[in-house]
Amino acid sequence: MEAVRYHGPNEALTLETIPIPTSSDLSPNEVIIRVEASALCHTELHFADGTLNLGVAPITLGHEAVGVITAVGSDVPPSRIGQRVINYYYVGCTTCRWCKRNEEQLCPNLKAEHGFITDGGLAGYIRTPSKNAVVLPDSLKFVDAAPIGCGVTTAVHAAKMGRVDSTHDECALVYGCNGVGFGLVQLLKNVYKMKTVGVVARSEAKRKRAIELGADFVVDGTDSSSVAAVVREKTRGEGVDVLFECVGTRDTLDSCVGWVGALGRRGRLVLVGYHQGEEHEFRCHPIPMIVYEQTVVGSVGATLEDLKEAVQYVGEGKIRTVVDSVISLDKFQDGLDRIKSCDCVGKIVCLPCHGRR
């Protein structure tokens, strides 16, 4: 089968032919998924440019894969064969305190992490524990389901980390809007019923799409030095109560905090995006944060329960995934180039070629 392979930082990603996993490769609790669609993520660019270097290579990238179960291990009911599923990409050790809390994304001894330290879903097939293969609604097309695996689940988890509370008439801001950002807008409006949700984006097309998905106001993020002032104006000088920072550059982070930053009193800043290098380190003076009683929290990945909730929300129509385009797996680099240049509105989804083994 063809797979997108990573060989180390600052080395070109390649499309290679590797063996298809077989039933003999399975542990008793595992299944094999024939991948029908897999979404590209900025994470793949982070691997390519060395931002992420987890010391494991070569591996197949991709952590947003959906497909059909074709084989099962000895402890998995044969009835699972043929089920349409989405893969949860963390496999915890099961014994640490985080795994016991069902928060495998924090496990310090991961057995696997598909697309990060273990072969992922930018391929024809993927091997995974049965419990990680979450059933999809029959009404949901594979192309529309693939972006749930990171774009929507990350939003679901980030909202929990930000302690979103619609009972206090709070205002939220999504800074940087594409896969995760579009998911956050809909989650905050349609699930949490927040009265006011704003979006900061450089792209006019993305700002327009955010409004269509329910955002109450949008801000042009081309000049990040002006963002805070505009947000303050939109919020009657108060700033926002919870801010999801999905970009992670020094300029965007600077506009969030400080005496007149976009984050208001007792605001929660949720860090989702990141960039490489000291020039993008998050720095702020503590005095404004102390006086305003602000909180900064990171948010990484999602729990298995977050994925199940995300599938439910999409199945119910509360969240719609936004797909920019669909390409064949052998065109993956074209897709990544478009992501790097911010030339897409929504996710780019790859279709494996099962005709080439």
What would you note in describing this structure?
- The protein is of the alpha/beta class and 357 residues long.
- 25% of the residues lie in helices and 25% in strands.
- Strands 3, 5, 6, 9, 10, 17 and 18 form a seven-stranded mixed beta sheet that branches. The protein has a six-stranded parallel beta sheet with strand order 13-12-11-14-15-16, sandwiched between helices.
- Helix 4 crosses helix 5 (179-191) and helix 4 (151-161) crosses helix 10 (304-315).
- The longest helix is centred in the middle third of the chain and has 13 residues, at 179-191.
- The radius of gyration is 20 Å and the shape is globular.
- The model has no long low-confidence stretch (mean pLDDT 95).
Brief characterization of the structure:
This protein is an alpha/beta fold and 357 residues long. It is built from 11 helices and 18 strands.
Structural topology:
Layout lengths: L1 E5 L7 E4 L12 E10 L2 H7 L10 E2 L4 E8 L11 E4 L2 E2 L5 H4 L11 E2 L11 E5 L3 E3 L6 H4 L5 H11 L9 E5 L3 H13 L4 E6 L2 H9 L4 E4 L6 H8 L5 E6 L4 H5 L8 E9 L14 H6 L3 E4 L5 H12 L7 E6 L3 H9 L6 E5 L6
Parallel strand pairs: 11-12, 11-14, 12-13, 14-15, 15-16, 17-18
Antiparallel strand pairs: 1-2, 1-4, 3-5, 3-9, 3-18, 5-6, 6-10, 7-8
